[in-house]
Amino acid sequence: MLRAKPEGLSALQREIVSCRLCPRLVEWREKVAREKRAAYSDETYWGRPVPGFGDPEARVVVLGLAPAAHGANRTGRIFTGDRSGDFLFAALHRVGFSNSPFSRHRDDGLRLDGLWISAAVRCAPPQNKPTPSERDACLPYAAREIELLDATVVVCLGAFAWDAALRIFEVSPKPKFSHGAEVTAGAASLLGCYHPSQQNTFTGVLTPEMLDAVLLRARALVREGDPPHEPGRTTGLPIG
Questions:
Q1: What does DSSP assign to residue 98?
Q2: Sheet harboring 153-157: ordered strands across?
């Protein structure tokens, strides 16, 4: 059974990477990958849907909005290679979910312990704004990840991810998003957290202490409901 879980996640990753369901997103992600940003002109962009990654035995899932055009759409790993990721991984390292405070590229040795990182939408969208139909087409991927992981806590980064998680868990009526919001959804808990965008982190809307507090609450919820995570069991699934 332990072996079946990573195999299921790997199969799902391959399915995500090959997805071409949304023509607008396919066109945009590939256009960005061809034209590139000047600072990354010598790099080969990923230019495909970005799968989740982390510990196959994770009970906590961090759910973001979508890949950044010159972040994960370039590196092939969610929250990797952009300022939002810098802020997030520093926090994950401080609270013990990551072996490194930095995330530069998908083969940099970073490993997550007890945590999986996912997104509501897997392709970089124009202006970072997926349409409702694009969200609905992509959301089953995150739902299947959460089911395969048997995750008990979902940390929702921003209102878009919060709404996505409420849809996945079919929570109704829908509670309003706020930082630190906590909702029970069956056997799982949903936690609201401001997105670590530059707009939020540069203005102090989201501080390191605020993000740490949400991540520590996620860890506490897991400890309340589960036996301790077995050390040394973390593996990073390959992408592609």
A1: B
A2: 53-54, 115-119, 60-64, 153-157, 188-193, 182-185
Which residues on adjacent β-strands are paired with residue 118?
A: 63
Nearest residue to 177 (alpha-carbon basis) of 188, 190, 187: 190
Give the integer Cα–Cα distance in Å for 155 and 170: 16
Residues 6+ apart with CB under 8 A from 173: none
Q: Tell me how far the alpha carbon of residue 213 is from its chain's centroid.
A: 18
Geometric angle at alpha carbon 122, from 117 and 128, rounded to 5°: 105
List CB contacts of 107: < 8 A, sequence separation 6 or more.
none
Residue 47: the pLDDT is: 98
H or E stretch covering 167: helix 159-168
- Enter the tokens of residue 158: 């921003």
Task: List, for residues 147-159, the tens digit of each pLDDT value.
Answer: 999 999 999 999 9
Give yes or no for a cis peptide into 173 (omega within 30° of 0). yes
State which residues of the chain have pLDDT below 70: 1-4, 226-240
Is beta strand 115-119 parallel, antiparallel or unpaired with respect to 182-185?
unpaired
Structural contact between residues 43 and 32, judged by C-beta atoms closer than 8 angstroms? no
| pLDDT of the residue at 6 | 83
4-225 is classed CATH 1.10.340.30 = no
What pLDDT, on a 0 to 100 scale, did the predictor assign at position 32? Answer: 98
pTM for the whole structure: 0.91
Residue type, 236: G
Q: What is the pLDDT of residue 5?
A: 80
Q: How much is the pLDDT for 226?
A: 57
User: What whole-number distance in Å separates Cα of residue 82 and Cα of residue 48?
Assistant: 17
